[in-house]
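Hi F.,

I've been meaning to write this up properly since the lab meeting, where we talked about keeping a consistent format for the predictions we share between groups. The idea is simple: the sequence comes first, exactly as it goes in, then the structure tokens exactly as they come out, then a line or two of notes. No screenshots and no reformatting. I'm using this chain as the first example so we have something concrete to point to.
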Amino acid sequence: MAQEFKQNFITRSLTGLGITLPVFFIIFLENEYVFIAFLSLITGLSIFEWFKNSNNKSFLADSIIISLFIILTALYSDKFFLFIIFFTSIFWCLFCLSLATKSYIKLSFISFENIYLRTLIPIGFFGSGVFLISQDSFLSFSNYYLMLIIIFNSAISDSSAYLVGSFFGKNSLLKEISPNKTLEGFLGGICGSAIFGFLLVYFFESNPLLILILVIGSIFAFTGDYFFSFLKRKNGIKDTGSMLPGHGGILDRMDSHFSATPAITLLIIILL
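Output, unedited:
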């Protein structure tokens, strides 16, 4: 068990490092076109991977939805992105509520076959990132770095939950969806985000509300994690792909980011 954990953790860490280094470089450049190209790549790969896991392979419908998104973006830009951020955040709030009340089993529309979800969810992440970098700084540093903080927060929450749950997890949370996730892991993830937020506020003299925002973001990171676990369980698969060793596919790695990023972005707009 210990050897398996060690090997899995090393593999996940190396893959995570391989993902993180390019992200650091792209953020450091602070080039709008490079940043948007990177988000477009992640969004496109995510939609394609979702498409591969679906029995509803309606390429025409996907193309129409994506084309409509591009047209509305060109016409309305920030206003349309705000709508996307708000709409996807509401969706994640409702799914979070369904987890808390254990009513998610009734949500039959949540499946890999839903062509609207497979475009809306990745586009929500894309729209949040593009909206952030187009605005004046919300804090004492560039919004490019704020986007990096949002991404790091979900990763820190995920890693903290994995470590705490692996060593101390005893009480399962929603074991019918993901039997390996525990209450202890959930609390560990929240604590990880809280510590991360505190360090940012302390060292960069940021707004203390950032701690609250990142803690709430941690909860939404878990929501996205459970959402994709629910999808995979309904389809009887372990991973959505095999592109990322130790993580599975793009969707397996992006699950918490897809939910936390629009939610945190909305909170930043409202509170900061």
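Notes:
Residues 2-271 form one domain.
The chain has one domain: 2-271.

If this format works for you, I'll send the rest the same way.

G.
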